[in-house]
């Protein structure tokens, strides 16, 4: 029955919601760093100051290295992942934003932070032309940690970065079998022990990973222990190769 009281079709409702979302996203708002008004949430001046001015980084561990060549440590002890791309170096002002995003229940920062990583990633991958990625995965949280936080910050980044790259993403293939103590403040060796056998791919998921090139996304890379554990689990499940994409890279560990 038609009439003025008829409800709009689901497709029309979704289209209207999409248009409204795009309109709201384009409205001016304060820059999250300096407070000046801009349409992106990160003003042009802050982009130039805090994103565009990046030192050359080692392509394997994403630590500063003259000329952007593979550093001596990675030549001696190469990590199991073949590339690491970092959006920014961890420090002011990113440390504050990541803390708000990760620990202070502000998942709405994910879009802005994912855009920072995606922009850098586009530039880096265009210059280096690495093996194409087939699937994007987040570093997983345990069920108890996910319930505590309410969202996985790595997944919030991964799914947005994957969309920007035109790639599929999946949060259910790589699992964290057990909860581990917070990594903050742990040494490299302590982090390695903390994560031993913590990551796993179920047999049912291995067929989707077999022979595929994967990108593993996380918010921060510190000692690399989490990325190493996750990469080893993915390679053991049959992945052909793994590269790591992180929002921020901390200074070299002691």
Structural write-up:
The protein is 42% helix and 15% strand. It folds into two domains: 39 residues, no CATH class; 195 residues, Rossmann fold (3-Layer(aba) Sandwich), CATH 3.40.50. By secondary structure, the chain is an alpha/beta fold. It contains ten helices and eight strands.
Brief sketch in words of this structure:
With 254 residues, this protein is of the alpha/beta class. It folds into two domains: 15-53, no CATH class; 55-249, Rossmann fold, CATH 3.40.50. The chain is 42% helix and 15% strand.
Number of helices: 10
Total strands: the figure is 8
Largest sheet: 4 strands, parallel
- The CATH class of the largest domain is Alpha Beta
The whole-number mean of residue pLDDT values reads 84
- Helical proportion, percent range: 40-55%
Q: Give the overall shape, derived from the CA principal axes.
A: globular
Strand arrangement in the largest pleated sheet: 3-8-7-4
Distance between the termini: 72 Å
Rounded Rg: 20 Å
State the domain count: 2
CATH architecture of the largest domain: 3-Layer(aba) Sandwich
Secondary-structure class: alpha/beta
**SSE order, as H and E?**
HEEHHEHHEHHEHEHEHE
Give the oligomeric state: single chain
Strand content: 15-25%
Uncertain residue segments: 20-24
Q: What name is given to the CATH topology of the largest domain? A: Rossmann fold
Layout of helices and strands, plus pairs?
Layout: H1 10-25, E1 29-30, E2 37-38, H2 44-52, H3 72-76, E3 83-89, H4 94-103, H5 110-128, E4 135-138, H6 143-149, H7 153-165, E5 174-176, H8 188-195, E6 199-201, H9 203-209, E7 213-221, H10 225-236, E8 241-249
Parallel strand pairs: 3-8, 4-7, 7-8
Antiparallel strand pairs: 1-2, 5-6
Helix pairs in contact: 5-7
């Amino acid at each position: 029955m038609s009439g003025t009281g008829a409800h709009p079709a689901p497709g029309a409702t979704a289209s209207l919601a999409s248009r409204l979302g795009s309109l709201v996203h384009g409205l001016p708002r304060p820059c999250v760093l300096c407070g000046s008004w801009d349409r992106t949430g990160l003003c042009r001046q802050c982009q130039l100051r805090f994103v565009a001015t990046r030192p050359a980084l080692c392509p394997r561990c994403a630590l500063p290295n003259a000329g952007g060549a593979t550093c001596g440590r990675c030549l001696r002890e190469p990590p199991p992942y073949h590339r690491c791309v970092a959006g920014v170096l961890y420090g002011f002002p990113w440390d504050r934003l990541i803390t708000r995003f990760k620990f202070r229940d502000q998942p709405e920062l994910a879009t802005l932070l994912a855009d920072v990583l995606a922009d850098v990633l586009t530039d880096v991958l265009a210059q280096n032309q690495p093996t194409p990625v087939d699937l994007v995965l987040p570093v997983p949280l345990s069920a108890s940690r996910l319930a505590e936080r309410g969202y996985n910050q790595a997944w919030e980044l991964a799914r947005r970065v994957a969309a920007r790259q035109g790639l599929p993403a999946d949060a259910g293939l790589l699992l964290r079998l057990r909860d581990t103590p917070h990594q903050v403040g742990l040494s490299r060796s302590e982090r390695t022990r903390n994560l031993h056998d913590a990551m796993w791919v179920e047999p049912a998921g291995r067929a989707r990973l077999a022979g595929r090139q994967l990108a593993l996304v996380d918010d921060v890379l510190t000692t690399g222990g989490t990325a190493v554990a996750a990469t080893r689990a993915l390679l053991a499940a049959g992945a052909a190769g793994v590269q790591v994409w992180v929002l921020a890279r901390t200074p070299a560990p002691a």
